């Protein structure tokens, strides 16, 4: 072996012993893993087709008014000239269902009384005019279903179906078949596109002798200890769930006077409990509905500013942060001063929204032209509504 070859073999051997100059073994390739799929996001409620105004200021309309092109032309013209921007339309009242709903119980009991013959035209007109529509659905007072299906009715202790002093029959609030029936009507209103559902008569009957009322479904109601206010709250939550799934607002009309007491009078409207399920509440603080001396006001009907101010102050104290949209009085001959006095009282307490009630849908336009700079009204006596300037027919 030559000297040169000997040195080469020794160099190779040294490399083998020390590992110098050797390439390290490759790292194992990482195993690809698929991350678990992210949970599907909750679907967002659909956005209503009728955007809510900054401040809802509206009037009540019967279904007959809303179904009349001539009347609605007058309403739209009045809304154009005033600060009003919303209408509350009857979908259901006293058991009547004024739209063709296709609900068998309504049709079979004779409750269907179609006043809105062309619902698509009405809803399209409201949308084109930028008017915010609210569906009014009166719940448990019903003059049709109790007569057709007495098992669903409030019964009389002496036998037969119970009637209030005005002759109206009532659905039994404990009976969840009635909840389902009213839920179908709510679903129908949502299908028409109403961005807000407003429940009225969401209570037990009050006009008559409570001692003679019998509620057949009470014995089978799941909560044996439930009081009327608990039943009404449970019903409201049941309806509210389906309303919110559709992206609509949920409101309720309640007695204005309930802000005074802490105890429910058996009608299911204890203030804090009735308010909780709803996005906003609409207390009916009509001055003429308060007894003389209430809140220390000698004559509430002739002191609209004072009585509304004191009543709504109670709501503000007991329901801090709750949205309140009061029903105000535009009837019994009230004129500009009386109506603006009520609006002023609401605004002073921070409530910028309001609704006006007149069963004949005749409103004092001059009272709602522009209330951005209200001054304290001058006390005047109510006048004959037929002689009030600016009334609409």
Short description:
The protein has 393 residues and is α/β, with parallel strands linked by helices.
Structural key phrases:
31% helix, 393 residues, disordered N terminus, two-stranded antiparallel ribbon, disordered C terminus
Overview of this structure, please?
The chain is α/β, with parallel strands linked by helices and 393 residues long. It is 31% helix and 13% strand. The protein is built from eleven helices and twelve strands. The chain has helices spanning 3-18, 63-66, 69-81, 104-108, 119-129, 145-148, 176-192, 228-245, 271-275, 304-318, 336-348; strands spanning 57-61, 86-93, 96-97, 132-138, 155-156, 196-200, 213-214, 249-255, 280-284, 323-324, 327-329, 354-357. The strands form two sheets. Strands 1, 2, 3, 4, 6, 8, 9, 10, 11 and 12 form a ten-stranded mixed sheet that branches. The chain has a two-stranded antiparallel ribbon with strand order 5-7. Strand 2 and strand 3 (96-97) form a beta hairpin. The longest helix is centred in the middle third of the chain and has 18 residues, at 228-245. The chain starts with a helix and ends in a 36-residue tail after the last strand.
Helix content: 25-40%
Order of helices and strands: HEHHEEHHEHEHEEHEHEHEEHE
Radius of gyration: 33 Å
Q: What spatial form do the alpha-carbon principal axes imply?
A: globular
The total strand number stands at: 12
How would you characterize the largest beta sheet?
Answer: 10 strands, mixed
Q: Mean pLDDT, rounded to whole units? A: 88
Q: Helix count, per DSSP?
A: 11
Structural class: alpha/beta
What is the end-to-end distance? 129 Å
Low-pLDDT runs: 1-25, 375-393
| Residues in β-strands, percent | 5-15%
């Amino acid at each position: 072996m030559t000297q040169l070859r000997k040195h080469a073999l020794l160099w190779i051997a040294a490399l083998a012993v020390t590992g110098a100059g050797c390439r390290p073994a490759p790292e194992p390739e990482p195993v690809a893993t698929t991350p678990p799929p992210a949970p599907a996001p909750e679907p967002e409620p659909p956005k209503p087709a009728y955007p809510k105004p900054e401040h809802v200021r509206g009037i009540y309309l019967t279904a007959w008014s809303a179904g009349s092109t001539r009347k609605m032309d007058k309403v739209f013209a009045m809304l154009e000239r005033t600060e009003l921007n919303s209408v509350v339309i009857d979908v259901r009242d006293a058991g009547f269902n004024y739209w063709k709903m296709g609900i068998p119980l309504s049709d079979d009991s004779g409750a269907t009384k179609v006043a809105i013959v062309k619902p698509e035209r009405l809803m399209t007109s409201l949308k084109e005019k930028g008017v915010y529509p609210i569906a009014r659905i009166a719940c448990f007072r019903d003059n049709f279903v109790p007569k057709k299906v007495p098992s669903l009715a409030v019964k009389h202790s002496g036998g037969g179906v119970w009637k209030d002093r005005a002759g109206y029959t009532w659905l039994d609030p404990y009976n969840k078949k009635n909840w389902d029936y009213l839920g179908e009507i709510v679903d129908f209103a949502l299908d028409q596109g109403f961005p807000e559902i407003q429940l009225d008569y969401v209570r037990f009957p009050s006009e008559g002798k409570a001692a003679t009322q019998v509620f057949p479904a009470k014995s089978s109601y799941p909560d044996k200890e439930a009081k009327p206010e608990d039943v009404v709250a449970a019903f409201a939550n049941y309806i509210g769930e389906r309303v919110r799934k559709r992206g609509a607002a949920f409101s309720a009309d309640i007695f204005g006077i309930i802000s005074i007491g802490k105890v429910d009078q058996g009608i299911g409207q204890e203030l804090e409990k009735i308010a909780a399920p709803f996005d906003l509440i609409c207390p009916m603080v009509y001055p003429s509905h308060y007894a003389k001396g209430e809140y220390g006001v000698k004559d509430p009907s002739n002191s609209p500013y004072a009585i509304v101010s004191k009543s709504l102050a109670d709501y503000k104290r007991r329901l801090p942060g709750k949205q309140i949209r009061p029903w105000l009085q535009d009837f019994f001959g009230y004129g500009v001063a009386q109506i603006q006095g009520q609006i002023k009282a609401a605004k002073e307490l921070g409530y910028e929204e309001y609704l006006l009630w007149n069963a004949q849908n005749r409103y004092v336009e001059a009272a709602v032209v522009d209330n951005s700079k209200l001054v304290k009204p001058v006390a005047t006596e109510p006048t004959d509504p037929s002689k009030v300037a600016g009334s609409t027919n």
